[in-house]
Design goal:
Length: about 600
């Protein structure tokens, strides 16, 4: 009865809003105020925005077999398992024959990511485990899209094992790490892990992100995570301590992104994303500032595409612009990261169906990755770079005030777009965001979006699609992705397909059909960036969620962060896990971004 009593008032307010002049009804959100309050009551517990605890990771010298704690994990390459070397024999003897039992009785071969664990009968460690690192040399075809390094996998598996077996302290070691040699002439999947420092960096990051669980929305308190982890076999000292610190900063960014992507749409609204950005700015006021454009400000800038997408929702669009400036005040390069931020995507009148709509709370995962990068960079604080983090946050809902197929909207660069499909909304909000970014006078822009199902069909659930016409941008993004262990693959910007976006009544239409859908979406976005600006587009359609683990991944944070850090020097920059990212030579620059 209470619900029905609301309806007449809501309809009256709706009619009143329609009859009012546009300027007066612009900010009206009354029709859905009661419904919004009711939805908010569903989440009556405090939902933390940041992890309350993080594993304390450190490096140590000495014999790991003398370490006392809950869990000792050894990483073993397949060559070590298959052979009968002194190091493996010594380890096996020291732990009472456990390792040989893993190999002979349980079939452990050292394949990448495989694990075995048991109680240790002697020594000061409760549990001992082995994790396979795969072959020492991983030779792959030129241009392959690498995933996480074996050392990152080692750290992640150790963290998972700790969580499964209630370990609060852990130690990780490599067998004969210092004796491992790599053929420098062979193409490798992970060029950046050829020395001990970088291996340690990858292990540290794996330990920090590997044991993640989605528990914030459950009524029972989550078990405490792994409290401390010590990495042996790789040395210690200030350099290794720096690696642990950088790993901590990056892990915070990844977790931040995961928290946002997994949050339900009745919590994570455009306004909520604005408050999240505000929390980043308030936590680092020395380097971060925030500007949030309301509907009136966006209208004044002519953002017809962006506002059309959010017109049907009770949750008012919030255009978020977070800026990082170094404390030194020295700026050699200006960059922009733009993330699609649709807090829920119904598809609009082109409504999504069962099997697709359920995961659409994460259609803001691009924006979450951008905020995760902002969180990480606010701690790392690179010098010489000004970075703009831009999130056109809106909800693509269904109502009488929403955009319809066949509508025409005008972007902030003056181009008119015929709405062919209301479910191709991501490119609309990105269009106005890209125009906004370029007007800031930036040198380079990277956007990231859960944009097209076509990218998923082409590359599957583990590889992102990269689009750019600038070879320098392509090289830098591929290097950043390789460092991060996040796979991307460059697809062509096939200009012959541009005609598929032609409209008989507008400058272009927002959807060109299924064939080459990821390419035509990238070509649409190209209409809103001038050739003078280096621009890269990452279509991360299916990468925000891991169907196997049923967890949100935080994908994109590491690639974006490493790309930003790589722009800090004309030649090279010290970044986590990869100290020498070369920039492509200027003569290799493509047709755009000269």
């Amino acid at each position: 009865a209470h619900l029905y009593s609301i309806v007449p008032d809501a309809l009256q307010l709706k009619l009143q809003a329609v009859l009012e002049p546009p300027a007066k009804r612009q900010r009206r959100a009354a029709p859905c105020t009661v419904a919004s309050q009711a939805m908010a009551l569903i989440l009556d517990k405090e939902i933390p925005l940041r992890a309350k605890e993080q594993t304390d990771v450190s490096f140590a010298e000495g014999d790991p077999l003398l370490w006392s704690g809950d869990l000792l994990v050894y990483g073993l390459h397949t060559e070590a398992v298959a052979g009968s070397g002194q190091d493996l024999s010594a380890l096996n003897d020291a732990v009472g024959g456990i390792v040989r039992d893993f190999v002979d009785l349980e079939g452990f071969k050292g394949s990448l990511g495989t694990t075995k664990i048991t109680r240790r009968c002697n020594g000061g460690t409760r549990l001992i485990a082995v994790v396979g690192l795969g072959p020492t040399e991983v030779v792959v075809s030129q241009g392959a899209a690498p995933g996480p390094s074996p050392y990152r996998v080692l750290g992640e598996k150790a963290s998972v094992l700790a969580g499964e077996h209630g370990a609060k302290t852990a130690a990780v070691a490599l067998l004969s790490a210092a004796d491992t040699t790599i053929d420098e002439s062979a193409p490798r999947r992970h060029d950046h892990v050829h020395d001990l420092e970088h291996r340690g960096a990858d292990i540290a990051l794996g330990l920090l992100v590997g044991g993640y669980k989605c528990s914030r929305f459950k009524s029972a308190d989550a078990p405490s995570p792994l409290q401390s982890a010590t990495i042996f076999s790789l040395g210690a000292g200030p350099d290794m301590a720096d690696e642990a610190t950088r790993a901590s900063h990056l892990a915070r960014g990844v977790t931040f992104c995961r928290y946002l992507a997994e949050a339900p749409a009745n919590l994570c609204t455009p306004e909520y994303l604005a408050r999240v950005a505000q929390s980043i700015a308030e936590a680092a006021p020395q380097v971060m500032t925030l500007e949030v454009l309301d509907v009136a400000a966006c209208t004044a800038l002519g953002m017809g595409c962006y506002l059309a997408v959010g017109a049907a929702s009770a949750h008012i669009p919030h255009f978020i612009h977070l800026t990082y400036k170094p404390e030194s005040g020295r700026v050699a390069k200006k960059l922009a990261l733009v993330g699609k931020s649709i807090t829920f995507d119904t598809g609009g009148y082109n409504l999504k169906v069962h099997g697709f709509i359920e995961k659409m709370k994460a259609d803001m995962a691009g924006g979450a990755a951008v905020l995760g990068a902002a969180e990480a960079l606010s701690h790392i604080r690179p010098d010489g770079l000004e970075v703009h983090f831009i999130l056109p946050a809106a909800e693509n809902a269904v109502s009488g005030s929403g955009m319809r197929p066949s509508d025409i909207v005008t972007a902030s660069n003056g181009k008119t777009i015929e709405i062919e499909d209301t479910d191709a909304e991501g490119r609309l909000v990105l269009a106005d965001a890209l125009v906004f970014a370029e007007k800031l006078g930036v040198d380079a822009i990277v956007d990231i979006a859960t944009l097209t199902g076509a990218a998923y069909v082409a590359l599957g659930p583990s590889v992102g699609a990269l689009f750019t016409e600038c070879n320098q941008m392509a090289g830098a993004l591929r290097a950043a992705a390789q460092t991060s262990g996040e796979s991307i693959w460059q697809l062509p910007m096939e200009s012959r397909y541009r005609k598929l976006l032609d409209s008989p009544i507008a400058d272009l239409k927002n959807y060109a059909g299924q064939p080459a859908g990821a390419i035509t979406a990238a070509l649409f976005l190209r209409e809103f960036v001038s050739p003078a600006v280096q621009w890269g587009h990452i279509d991360a359609a299916a990468l925000a969620y891991d169907a196997e683990t049923k967890l949100y991944t935080g994908w994109g944070v590491l690639t974006l962060t490493h790309w930003v850090l790589s722009q800090g020097s004309a030649h090279k920059v010290a970044v986590f896990g990869f100290k020498d990212i070369p920039h492509s030579p200027a003569k290799d620059t493509g047709t755009r971004g000269k």
